[in-house]
Amino acid sequence: MSEFDSAGAVFTRRPKSLAAFLEGSAEQSRLWRPEELGAIFRHQMSAPVLVDLGGYDAGVAVRLKKLSDAQSLLLKSFSDLFHHRAPPLELLELTKDFAKANMDNSQSTLPNEVAAALYYTSIAAALVQLDTRISKLPDPDLRRGLLWTRDQPWLDDPTRQLLLQAAEKIPPPGGKGASAS
Asked: For the whole model, what pTM was predicted?
């Protein structure tokens, strides 16, 4: 197995480097097997949002509690958040920031692939459910990241569909119409 962690090397750089990770990740050795990543992803999707995002300062923790309980929305897990018809925008942004922080942290216990999936899924939920963009990534990089995430064998079908819908909202490079293939 290679000593070089391509995901870690790329994610410690700026978002523009995501393209390099996505293009080279299949060629590099992985620290985790697909079935392990699937188990970690499923666990993360069922994890309480307040537990993972509650590590922010006390003010953010209070806002998170209010957001997750707002308007009787039962947003207890990341899956609930991503697949809700009208998720709170601020909660999606905090989730995106949480995932990015885990991608940028070599000490994170969350595998880079799973953190990247959370990152792109939070962006996808904002695009699809709220018709709002919460990423500054250029269209080609964002589309590539959404499709890379969609293609992970360990992803669940509802999340895969959400990512596909989001990718269809991003114009393909140099093309007319949005084709997500």
From this structure: 0.74
Neighbours of 160 (CB within 10 A): 15
Both structure tokens of 83: 């697949």
CA angle, residues 78, 84, 88, in degrees to nearest 5: 80
**Eight-class DSSP state of 16:** G
- The token pair that represents 113 in the structure block: 């692939």
- Residue 129 · residue 102 · CB < 8 Å: no
Question: Tokens 């709002």 correspond to what residue?
Answer: 132
Q: Which two tokens stand for residue 122?
A: 């939070």
d(CA 92, CA 125): 8
Per-residue pLDDT band at 15 (split at 50, 70, 90): low
Q: Distance between alpha carbon 50 and the CA centroid of its chain, in Å?
A: 17
